[in-house]
User: What shape does this take?
Amino acid sequence: MTELQLFAREFLRDPLHVASLIPSSGPLCRQAAAPLPETGDPVVLDLGAGTGQVTDVIQDRLQGRGRHIAVEFNPRMAAMLAERQPKVEVICDDAHAVVDRLLEEGLRVDLTVSGLPWLVTAPPGGPSIFGGLARLAAPGGAVTQLAHSWFRFFPTAKKVQRNLEATFEEVVVSRTVWANFPPAVVYVARRPRV
Assistant: This one.
């Protein structure tokens, strides 16, 4: 089965946990990974990594530096990702649970890239994941969240943006990446309020 076929099948099986029918485009992935430090040994957390489009861009930019943790809830996608990127620590688990474990370890993250679906970032009746990501952030660190631009003004999407703005002092929305299907933007959040 090809990567595209797997992605489409898993989206149709579980659209609440798979954010898109097809993988993110290269231009969108590069925009999401743009805040990655160019020097040193950064720690990168890659949430909702899918089959690895953003992961590939991050690995290309890291060039063997630092630590890269990719989290994917879907076991079939996580298996494909682990096979494609053997140097990445691939964790097949719920993103909220992984963030809690990393906080317990005292890890500090230079860049978190989230491709998580909006409902996963702030489940009904549960806390937003952004509070945990803010506590994980290293000084000068950033959190990026991918979002389909057509849906940015829906109530759930507005809630995601409010959660980001309540958690970070700076939240910037990128220009629309028209090369993605569907067109998308990246929220870039810095300076946690915690």
Summary: The radius of gyration is 15 Å.
